[in-house]
Amino acid sequence: MPDDMRWVKTHCARMDHGGCALLVAVRDNKIVQVKGDPEGFLNRGYMCVKGVASPDRLSHPDRLRHPLKRVGKRGAGKWQRISWEEALEEIAGNLVGIKEKHGARGVAFVVGMPKGLDHLVLIRLANIFGSPNVVGIQDLCHAPREVTGYHTCGFYPVVDFHYESKFVILWGSNLTSTNEEGEICSMILGQIKKGLDYIVVDPRRIGLAKKSKLWLQVRPGTDAALALGMLNVVIGEELYDKAFVEKWTHGFDELATHVKKYTPEKVAEITWVPADDIRKAARLYATSKPAAIQWGNPIEHNVNNFDTIRALICLMAITGNLDIPGGNVDARDPRIMGLAQFVRADLIPDKRKEMISAHYRVIPRFMTIPPAFLRKAILDGVPYPVRAVYAMCCNPMLSYADSRLTYEALMKLDFLAVSEIFMTPTAALADIVLPAATQYEFNDILHYGIGHGDILACPGVVDPPEECWPDLKILNELGKRISPPEHWHEDYNRFVEDLVKPSGLTYSQFCEKGYLKGTERFRKYEEKGFATPTKKVELLLSTAEQFKLRPLPEFRGLPEEEDSQYPLVLTSAKSRYYLHSSYRWIEKLRKLNPRPTVEIHPETAKKYAISEGDEVVIETKYGTIRQFAKLTDGVHPGVACAAHGWWFPEGNPENQYDWDKSNFNMLTSVGKLGREYGTPNVKALACRISRAG
Ligand SMILES: Nc1nc2c(c(=O)[nH]1)N[C@H]1C(S)=C(S)[C@@H](COP(=O)(O)OP(=O)(O)OC[C@H]3O[C@@H](n4cnc5c(=O)[nH]c(N)nc54)[C@H](O)[C@@H]3O)O[C@H]1N2
Ligand SMILES: Nc1nc2c(c(=O)[nH]1)N[C@H]1C(S)=C(S)[C@@H](COP(=O)(O)OP(=O)(O)OC[C@H]3O[C@@H](n4cnc5c(=O)[nH]c(N)nc54)[C@H](O)[C@@H]3O)O[C@H]1N2
Ligand code: SF4
Ligand SMILES: [Mo]
Fold first, then answer.
1. pLDDT digits (tens, 9 = 90+) for 554-580
2. What is the pTM of this model?
3. Using CA of residue 511, residue 514, residue 515, residue 516, what is the dihedral sign?
4. Spelled out in words, what is the top-level CATH class assigned to the domain 68-139+342-436+463-486?
5. Which ligand 3 atom is the nearest neighbour of the CA of 179?
6. Where are the domains of the chain?
7. 504 C-alpha vs ligand 1 centroid, how far in Å?
8. Top CATH class, 6-54
9. What digits encode the pLDDT tens for the residues 540-560?
10. What residues have CB less than 8 Å from 128, skipping those under 6 apart?
């Protein structure tokens, strides 16, 4: 090793939920090599190809390197380089101007998938500024699981791979591609090597389906029915944990009577899963303890998410798998600053009533705005106008259902500022674009608030380009300009210091340890009961009437009605090479996945005269896009699985890099929303496919 090269420890971030501990070789302020740290808490040396490519974000020639101001028409792609001082003044002037005219609530703060501590600092900024409108994508991502958990059993029941399970269901969770919620797949792969039995519930034959005991090739969007069918079997065959049910559940008799109608035969018709496989799956899960359900995104990607998740938690509960090692647990945070304190929730006590989604009466404890309501507020002034947006770490033009509506809304704003590392279709519509520093370039903390009871150290290892600022610094400086400066710090590194302070560590001591995990205690309910009004797991919701919720989980029909004009069921899965809409511009990754593909069964392809690699048109009632056919018998002949998140960095800047050509969300709509979370259908849509040309 050359003398001037040093190895530093940090964690991978912003390529998914993050979590792999890394060893990074640095020379002359440049990363020359990264490898998985064999001592890593979650990965034990594992890392994926995105991690390997991650340093390429820093050095890409087209990375944003200076603040930019729009000149000419919005979206025309004409920019002028300005100084940070000018950029911050411009943003502050506009946000404060809107506040004076429309109130603080006229400004929305927009984030995407939580990527690091900046997510929480943005919420803090909104709270201090006085706006109740923090818009996230939580309607599609984890809040349905988390908040349904609070209402049903008082906590968010996350899978526990730190202890051995006897049996696992991968329910719509493609862990080897997504490492969902930082559950790095090497953890379950290690258990599988030692003989763990598992089954897969997925319309596609994912990698892990090959060695699974059973693969339930479910019809997209019918997971609630499948879970109810399994409840029918577990209860009907008396396979449940009688002692637990007796002592710790509320409404078991009602649930038992209710699920009688979901016979495996009836459920088979809805879900396309053979009745005997439903029985087998239910028996395996109920008779192997501890058993865990690793649930994925698709359970929340349609209007029925509340019922699906309720049914799954009922399954965990009646089989006695809640809060036991190797089951689904209530993971407690280590001793660090609490979320509410960190984001200064105390400064905005009326937030719930004031949010632009309040009129829709989303479920209590769901505290970010579903994107459907942001666009309503901008375009129709309902329930009141939002006139300015500060957006960070997100790409709504691609990630929100109904992209055309997003385009119209962003075009109509008085002011849009975007912090980014690269020019995206969303940033292309901004008035001011801020060049952010990113992972490896500043001190960060990962997994805070994600619900798995750990936080990870993500110290910077190199300096950012001269004019690229970490979002923590941007928000800290903006905060001083648009809100009382006493809430902000001299040095933005105070955020990471303050957060870990209750643990007795400084940030650099924390970095030496690498991670902190809350004390592991199980069956905590034995002390004070479950944190619900009945102190039990509420199979039957005691708050149903009060909050206008359905007391028992139901299957209320397909998310979208069948339509003979659109005979295929359209779903999607994340690419293992990209994070949502991010990083199509990293050459290494683009080589591995050069263009958007839609998976269809060879029989289906033949029917429509489509061959491997053909460009095809995908149509729904709401829109039309083009992708390329990939023929595989790994999908059901009635299903098409298209790629999500595609735009073309090499595309036309005046058309926002061809944001509309292959973008899955041109095919989705917000016409129908789930009652509890305002979630649209982004999976299980009716579509048709034909060869382009
Ligand atoms: N149809 C459909 N829609 C979906 C989904 C789906 O499966 N299907 N999935 C949904 C889910 S689960 C989620 S979480 C959302 C994701 O929605 P988003 O979070 O909006 O999507 P990303 O593509 O991750 O956008 C992240 C942006 O942040 C930028 N970025 C990366 N690092 C930094 C940084 O350090 N600072 C700053 N300022 N910017 C940075 C990237 O360049 C990228 O443009 O999409 C949702 N939308
Ligand atoms: N590589 C990569 N990793 C990521 C991300 C990424 O974009 N790329 N995004 C991150 C984020 S924010 C999230 S939320 C997670 C999501 O991680 P996952 O939950 O794994 O998300 P998906 O890939 O959307 O879906 C998982 C599987 O569900 C299947 N599926 C599709 N429709 C249905 C259905 O109706 N029912 C069932 N049971 N299964 C269905 C798909 O075929 C796919 O194999 O991943 C995180 N990690
Ligand atoms: S699995 Fe996730 S955290 Fe690990 S290297 Fe890949 S992108 Fe990074
Ligand atoms: Mo997500």
1. 999 999 999 999 999 999 999 999 999
2. 0.98
3. negative
4. alpha beta
5. 1
6. 6-54, 68-139+342-436+463-486, 157-329+522-547, 568-691
7. 34
8. alpha beta
9. 999 999 999 999 999 999 999
10. 344, 347, 479, 483, 484, 487
Report d(CA 418, CA 384) in Å as an integer: 23
Ligand 1 proximity of 647 Cβ (cutoff 6 Å): no
Q: What is the residue-wise DSSP string for 19-88?
A: --EEEEEEETTEEEEEEE-TT-TTTTT---HHHHHTTHHHH-TTS--S-EEE-SSTTS--EEE--HHHHH
The CA-based angle 398-300-171, given to 5 degrees, is 115
Q: Span 530-534, mean pLDDT? A: 98
Q: Is the peptide bond before 290 cis (omega within 30 degrees of 0)?
A: yes
**Ligand 3 centroid vs 26 CA: distance in angstroms?**
19
585 — pLDDT class (breaks 50, 70, 90): very high
Torsion angle of the four alpha carbons 316, 320, 326, 327, in this order, in degrees rounded to the nearest 10: 20
Amino acid 693: pLDDT: 86
Model confidence pLDDT, tens digit, residues 54-106: 999 999 999 999 999 999 999 999 999 999 999 999 999 999 999 999 999 99
CA neighbours closer than 13 Å in the CB half-sphere of residue 8: 22
Q: How far is the CA of 442 from the centre of ligand 2 (A)?
A: 29
Protein fold of 157-329+522-547: Dimethylsulfoxide Reductase; domain 2 (3.40.228)
What pairing do the DSSP bridges indicate for beta strands 249-250 and 537-538? parallel
Q: What is the DSSP string of 570-616?
A: EEEE--TTSBTTB-TT-HHHHHHS-S-EEEE-HHHHHHTT--TT-EE
User: Is the predicted pLDDT of residue 160 greater than 80, yes or no?
Assistant: yes
Distance 306 CA to ligand 4 centre (A): 17
Residue type, position 590, single letter: R
The residue written with tokens 């591995």 in the block is: 592
CATH of domain 568-691: 2.40.40.20
Percent of the chain exceeding pLDDT 90 equals 99
Q: What is the pLDDT of residues 509-527, one digit of tens each?
A: 999 999 999 999 999 999 9
Consecutive H or E run containing 458:
strand 454-458
Query: What pLDDT, on the 0 to 100 scale, is given for residue 2?
Result: 56
Alpha carbon separation from 184 to 265, 579, 589 (Å, rounded): 36, 15, 20
Residue 546 burial (10 A CB sphere; 0-12, 13-18, 19+)? exposed
CA-proximal residue: ligand 1, atom 26 (nearest): 394
Residue with tokens 């499948």: 226
Range 444-454 average pLDDT: 96
Per the prediction, the chain carries an average pLDDT of: 97
Q: Which of 347, 345, 226, 203 is nearest to 281 (CA)?
A: 226
Long-range contacts of 410-415, Cβ-Cβ distance < 8 Å, separation of 24 or more: 410/378, 411/74, 411/75, 412/378, 412/379, 413/378, 413/387, 413/388, 413/389, 414/94, 414/98, 414/387, 414/388, 415/94, 415/95, 415/98, 415/387, 415/388, 415/389
Q: Give the C-alpha separation, 207 to 621, whole Å.
A: 32
Ligand nearest to the CA of 113: 1
The residue written with tokens 């003398």 in the block is 3
Tell me how long the chain is.
693
Which amino acid, one-letter code, is at 252?
F
Distance (Å) of CA 494 to CA 117, 342, 512, 661: 12, 12, 18, 44
Ligand 1 mutation pick, 60, 394, 445, max ligand atoms within 8 A of CB: 394
Tell me the per-residue pLDDT of 610-660, one tens digit each, with 9 for 90 and over: 999 999 999 999 999 999 999 999 999 999 999 999 999 999 999 999 999
Q: Does residue 24 carry a pLDDT above 90?
A: yes
Q: Identify residues whose C-beta is under 5 A from ligand 4, the ion.
A: 113, 141
β-strands 134-135, 107-111 pairing? parallel
Query: What tokens were used for 106?
Result: 């006229």
Among all bound ligands, the one having the nearest atom to the CA of 418 is 1
